[in-house]
Structures
1.
Amino acid sequence: MHKSILTTTSLLIGLMYISPSYSEELKVASWNIAWLGSHEYNKRKPTDYQQLANYAKQLNADVIALQEVENEQWARKVFGNEYDFYFSTKDWVQRVGVAVKKSAGIKVIAKEYKALDVSRVRHGMDLTLSRNGKELKLLAVHLKSGCFTDPLDENNISLMPSSSEKEQRRKEACATLSKQIEPLENWVDKQAKDNKAFIVIGDFNRRFSQDIANKRTEDQGLWQALDDEGNESLWTPTATMNSACWGGYYKDYIDHIVFNPMAKNMYLQSSFEQLVFKEKYTKALSRSLSDHCPISVKVNL
């Protein structure tokens, strides 16, 4: 009798262990590694790549959304051979990509999201990550820079000054970013409709904390445009925190990891981190390392 109970118990434990709903921690990060490519702005020396590689090891993430990285060849200068890389094909050195650690045991389906290219801007990368019978959708983005807090509605953009070259660039940036809202919303709506757990991650070039503080309307703020009800009700830890990158040089985050409710249920409480460079800020260092510090979260997958 005792032997039968033990055998049954052992079998149940074994079945639990191989259950397809078994979860493991997955560290998901985002890092804009400024001008990591063949562009003339990249003046890094071998020692700079080694310094970046040291921070990559410290980050030690399983999945990393990359911005401003030209291709796999350049990514390996920082991340070595431990990752598989999935890059957009946009003909520009500032590509969006995703690095997935080979040892993480994740099945990846990757495709470009070209709809974000509304006017000579970067494509996104749409990934389906699956492991242990669970699935997480991920959209890696690098949105148009230059319109960090201005209202995005057509009326306010039309009223923006444009007498100087700087003002013209800012106005054009806001007009372009406003056009990226629709393809972003379409992707979010599609995942919500399909009842998927999803994350939108990367460099949004938008201070969500300011969108919220300024109480923008849905057509004025990027955060408000994306944050709807139900499965489209979004959350990001960066909306209520200050960035410490380079001594808090820019206190408002523009890099974000945005969760829908299903993905939020996979989030490990208080796991958000920013890997802050230990060096004191100089303009040269912000170019040889990056003007962005990596951010990360942990989820159960």
2.
Amino acid sequence: MRELSDYRDEFPILSATTYLANHTLGAMPRKAADRLADFARMWAERGIRSWAEGWWEAPMRVGDQIGRIIGAPPTSTVMHQNVAIAEAIALSCFRPVDPARNRVVYERGNFPSVRYLYQAQPDLEVVVCEDDAEIVERIDERTLLVPMSHVIFKQAEIQDVEPIVRRAHEVGAHVILDCYQSAGIVPLDVTALDVDFAVGGSVKWLCGGPANGWLYVRPDLAERLQPTYTGWQAHARPFGFEEEMDYAAGATRFLTGTPNPAAHYAGTAGYDLIEEVGVSRIRENSLRQTQLLIDHADAAGFELHSPRDPVRRGGSVTIAVPEAAAVYAELETRGVLGDFRPGAGIRLGPHFFNTDDEIRFAVEQIAEIAEIGAYERQVGASASH
């Protein structure tokens, strides 16, 4: 078994930066460039034959690889451009909406893009909750869908999924679990959780780059639901060019139009590494390093906006500092990459290839920048008097 430090050479950006932004854009694996070159070579040399030689079935083949990472059975996961599209497809299965069951129970901390989708639907009523416990309380017989995040993006807090799924199923509602901030960093088994749908993407912990969203559909639902947001790849015989829709079997019917094989080829470089290392091993290291990050932040006197309880902590830690946007801007000039979110602070997300020294260095830099800023504010205040 390779040591985690042995994987550093797989990620070119680590040679030039302290890269702790894996919760927002996972470091690119070196082999992603090779996979993109494979795609380009096929296009150049094989032309139209490329569709039959790997391009057309890429959303299903790559979806199965994602499925192995998230605990989904074969043929239950397919690739899409992003989570908003994946959720829109799931929602379309319930059109037209029954006026007696038109509520979407939603948590305020969920990623805004998905919330915008549901808010934009004139026939849906969005019920906004403050936490996962309130979601359970607000689900009732009027609830149609419960789109929830497995890990809340701002503070990296893991949500208690089982009671929500149990309550939703008691009243006939469906749960869509957004795994964007958990897949690849927190062990996940969508089959054991019994969620109806799961969505996610590869921009973050899966290190698969943009345009690689995915949608899991529970196999029994996939055989009977009929999405109305659809396209020719969802047809049982797409190259028959028939005038009427005849849905394909399983999750394939949740595809839409022509796929994006370039993104799928690139994404597999990251998925291969996640499978090789194993999410359980990644999680063990993540918990140790996020605790180390918390310890250093505590020593520097910073407030945290992430859970201290490891059971509830995802893969990143949010540090609250005065004038966090300005502090992060300076941090970036020093080659330390994380990110900043309004109302939260500076987020740092170490992955399996990061070192403990990088974590220590990043917090030291934040502390130094914050101290300089505090001094300059004090001097400015004195000068104004």
3.
Amino acid sequence: MSSIVLLWVLFWAVFVIVSAIDLFFVTRRRETIPVRTALRWTALWISVAMLYSVAIWLLHPQGKQVATLFIAGYLTEYSLSVDNLFVFILIFSLMGVPEVAQPKLIKLGIYLSIVLRIVFIIFGIALIHRFHWLIYLFGALLLWTAWKMVATDEADQVHPDKNILYRLAARFLPIHADAPESRRLFLRDQGRLYITPLFLVFLVIGSTDVLFAIDSIPAIVGISQDPFVVLTSNVFAVLGLNSLFFALRGVMSLFRFLKHGVSIILFFIGAKMIAGAYPPIDDWFKDHPYVSLGVITIVLVVSIVLSLWHQKTCQGQIIDAPTKKPGFAPPDSCP
């Protein structure tokens, strides 16, 4: 067995094991998962991804370079996945999804995201190999995505009632007002099959997955066009997101500036893809993959540090806020 085949076997084995653990120990729980527990699970899955990068370093014929590209791709896709979860949280809030039903919807959204990314990876890489000029189009798409991410608030991007799939299903399919505590997407009543309100939520989540998959593929292709790096980093980035979802609900303030950091990363990758039209620049980045990794890591770290600093400063302002005026109530959270 060659080293690359061994890495593929190890990858799929980890995928099955992590999915099974996440399914039986996280998704099947009916009670809300504490933030600390969710953070421990999240740290475990990140550690698994980093251990896999070590395996790449030791086993792959081009171990150092491929491992560096894998980590860069993983961090980029993981950041986009976090932003995806923020949108999920907003959708659940706008559509009034009960907490007991959220883990199932998150898990379905994650599996759908994996399928979409694999399909888009296969077609995306095939198209780039056949029509190389598409990589410059992808670069321009990333520049536009970076600008849109900063210029548009997430709340303005999510309108479930305007979603085309939501509107079609609500108009043409029979809807059953299922019990609020139920987690079913379909329901049979008196011999007739109905969809439930949760199915409409899943349609909105699925539409969001498609948009994020479209954004994520150009991002990872801008780092590497090696199918092994692209596929493994993408799948590892969405594994264990169910745990991360519960962690984010409790520590969202830690990621206040993450969207800005992700937009900078997408801008950097998009600019690098377009600048690659000049061969010396393209060759330089290929010979120095750690540069992209360094930029991505520094931007993410600075984003989180700024978020922590903002949260600490804001809490200090809340504590020091004057309370002498009648009817004054300090704000509950940072603006």
4.
Amino acid sequence: MLYKKLVRPIFFLLNPEFAHKFVVTVIDLFFLLPFVRSLVNRIFSVHHKSLERELLGLKFANPIGLAAGFDKNADHYNNLAAFGFSFIEVGTVTPKPQPGNPKPRLFRLVSDHALINRMGFNNKGVNYVKLRLLNRRNPNLIIGGNIGKNTLTPNEKAVDDYLFAFNVLYPYVDYLVVNVSCPNVKDLRLLQELNSLEGILSTLKSARSNFNIYKPILLKLSPDLSNDQLIATVDVAERYEIDGYVATNTSTSRMNLLTPGNRIAKIGNGGLSGKPIAQRATEVIRLIHNHTHGRKPIIGVGGIFTPEDAREKIEAGASLLQVYTGFIYGGPFIVKKINKYLVNHSIY
């Protein structure tokens, strides 16, 4: 309550991108004090046998993770983990550093409990992220690496970017996510077309065979695909023995928003996240779960703000969950609230 009544209103006076940088910087500074990490971990973590999950050849202490985009460059994951997350997905990471799209590029839709972003894969490049991942403090924290192509790389050469990022990150993460569904990089979503997707997945599958340790590859899907398109995409992924799915990415939809249309028009392009995409994300999870007969793990993401939202995703077929917008609007206790609810209601 303190966060929503006092802290959030102050943060929401700031430019969204600046507020994000400010918050993670303050967290990092506080964690320099020797007692803070253990105190935060004690306050926010829930430890219970029923929360543990063994999926993708990995052991998750609980089903809640932090979605890609929050810690793009793996600068803050050690400290963010203390807020109860069992896994954190870094990225999206590209082979070369790039600044992303021009600012402003992150917008709050407060009445909709949503965000619109057109960040454009701003990141410091895969080699920087690799070095940051050498500093992992908690051996039980699972790290995912979300990979994409550089904006200036033409789609016909995109597979080279995915392969480069894959090969560099592979030894330093626990699983990898192929991001071909972000709406904020020009023409990226065209890579979801079946021929392009086949080329990327087959190349990465082959590249994995060059490593001694098997690590899972997941595909992140767009909520904007039709159900028929989603099934066709999943069929391609299944042919190349993809290990799981992340459902879903942000959306270009602007349907049923409470925010006035003139403000939406002024904001312009970008991916919508938060409450407005919750229902569609759940539909996509259910579709994948049913189509694959529940054989593949699904990381559910999109509009998770409450324990009931989490339950809905799990009942649709999600094996794990990720939060992002809900973390920003709901505050740091969101993970604890969901995990306590799952324990008390014997979910799973």
